[in-house]
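Renewal narrative, Specific Aim 1. Our central claim is that a sequence can be written position by position from structural information alone. The example that follows is taken directly from our test logs and has not been curated for this report. It begins with the structure tokens describing the chain, in the order in which they were read.
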């Protein structure tokens, strides 16, 4: 099972927010710094942290914390 606190820390570091601000309702619509550039950096950070490769077709759709959590769980085998 992935450590959600660590996942939130990775997301927060890329988006320049506090980890406590990353919640189930967090998305590119609710976090001001989550733009297309941050999205690209977020995917790279997740790939590095979890030693995964996010398919390009999924990368663009990872625009919320719940979706990121789901995909990272799937790609790491921690479903």
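The sequence written for that structure reads:
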């Amino acid at each position: 099972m992935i450590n959600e606190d660590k996942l939130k820390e990775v997301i927060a570091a890329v988006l320049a927010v506090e980890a406590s601000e990353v919640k189930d309702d967090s998305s590119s619509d609710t976090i001001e710094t989550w733009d297309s550039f941050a999205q690209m950096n977020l995917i790279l950070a997740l790939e590095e942290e979890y030693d995964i490769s996010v398919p390009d077709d999924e990368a663009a759709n990872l625009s919320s914390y719940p979706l990121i959590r789901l995909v990272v769980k799937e790609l790491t085998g921690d479903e």
